[in-house]
Amino acid sequence: MLKLLYAPTSPFVRKVMVCAHLAGLADRIEWLSSAAHPIHRDARIAAHNPLAKVPTLILEDGQALYDSRVICEYLASLGGNDHLFPSGGARRWQALTRQALGDGLLDAALLARYELTARPAEKQWTGWREAQLTKVDACLADIEAQASALATNRPCIGGVAIGCALGYLDFRFPDIDWRATHPGAARWFGVFGALPAMQATMPHE
């Protein structure tokens, strides 16, 4: 049995679990409670991952894998899913670059959120938060430009990362209303977000 240190609201955990569903491995993963936090280290995670971050996957032999990029590729390989991570050529580099785009949007959104939720009010920096949200806007513009080329059937890791990023904006940044200004991305996500793997991994408090 594989074991996953997780947080129910983490978009990177969701990314891993979407891949687990797409690879047919979701029922082989045991979820281990943790209290991941950007400041306070959870010893349960740190025992397996020096960064004390989720997701961290513990294999049956005790080896730990992290971060989401490594875990997702491992699950795709273990489950024999050959379209999540194309084996080579232009399709692979495109998939990995789109994964970086989705992950980058998430990194910026998380930093913007942490500025208000993890940093004391007297130390919060409005300019820093606005700079992160500018990155979010730039990523959304890039996703919009690529939306017509994103797959809904047999998605690759790039689509999974982008889908989880857009889902995180819905979950934590409803005020951004990204659909109003990115109709192509909204149409794609309307289909992609309805996939069973996405529906089964909706974040919750």
UniProtKB/TrEMBL annotation:
Top-rank taxon: Bacteria
Keywords: Transferase
InterPro entries on file: Glutathione-S-Trfase_C_sf (IPR036282), Glutathione_S-Trfase_N (IPR004045), Thioredoxin-like_sf (IPR036249)
GO MF, one example: transferase activity
SUPFAM superfamilies found in the cross-reference section: GST C-terminal domain-like, Thioredoxin-like
CDD domains per the UniProt record, alphabetical: GST_C_6, GST_N_3
Keyword Transferase (UniProt): yes
Residues of the GST N-terminal domain: 1-83
Name of the protein described by the UniProt record: Glutathione S-transferase
